[in-house]
Amino acid sequence: MWKLEPSDRALALETETGLRDAVGPPDVQEALPQIDRLEHLRETLAVLAISLACTHGRLAWFLSGAINALEPVLRWRPLPADRGGSFGTVLASPEE
Description:
Blueprint (H helix, E strand, L loop, with lengths): L5 H18 L2 H6 L2 H20 L3 H14 L5 E2 L12 E2 L5
Parallel strand pairs: 1-2
């Protein structure tokens, strides 16, 4: 059983608040254009990365797993690459 220390609990709650602010309610998120949805996903990664930098131990392991799951977001682009370099990014499929 994992018992959170008070500092871990506070960071977890702060992270949850940041994630809720970044993503918003599901119905609102689904109605957004793809470019805005991608922006929110990248903000989610930023919230997780900042929280990870503030902790260690099991909470860090948990947060790094969440970052790892969202890592493909960094390779997606919302618009076609015009005039040259896409820097290795790809258009995300609707399923992604």
